[in-house]
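Sanity check

After download, print the first record. It should look like this:
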Amino acid sequence: MTGEIDIYGVYVPTLLVLMLATLAVSLLVRRALAWAGFYALVWHRGLFDIALYVVLLLGVFNLSRWWLS
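Expected structure tokens:
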């Protein structure tokens, strides 16, 4: 995996692109969890959302490494 992605002549760090993709996935997962009523079981929603984002970021990172290799 390279350190930068070229988007129309602008070099953007790969991690930034992965973080934005993870944000979109995270919003969908959080909306689904809220719809299912899962947050009634969670003690601290903010901490849970941050932990969920980190786990999803790891998954997106691993998926991108697999896809680009």
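If your output differs, re-run the checksum step. Summary of this record's structure: Residues 17 and 54 are 15 Å apart (CA to CA).
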